[in-house]
Write the structure tokens for this entry.
Amino acid sequence: MAVEPDSAGVRFPPPFVYLGALLLGLAAERFVTLRSFGIDWRLLVATGALLFVAGAAMMLAAAGLFRRLGTNVPPSQPTTLIATTGPYRWTRNPMYLGMALIYAGLAIGFDGPIAFALLPLVLIAIQTQVIDREERYLEAKFGDDYRRYKAEVRRWL
């Protein structure tokens, strides 16, 4: 992934972090004893589907807003403005939150407790390797405007 000089400097697509950990966790299910949440599969699928749909809706709403506003979605490209409407009124990171909900939905829906247990590690990686970089970049680029937004809106929820 090419990283633009005027960007947060994120060198890998964040969705790949979520996807890689999810696939690793689901694959690990085949090699360890703990292979199930021990809950009826219908409840798992329903819960997983609900989380998946909520996450996809949040992610698509945030990405759609970026496109309508004319700014870039990938963190390897320049940000042209601070989005403060739509899902950005409630969370500074609706795309990453949406990806986390999708991840949780898939892990639960596929009855993958190991994959689900890896989600906190994914969130730590996203926080330290992506969000922290983005926030430093946005503060440097937008100054007080971003600091005010940051003071008003929570990072995750």
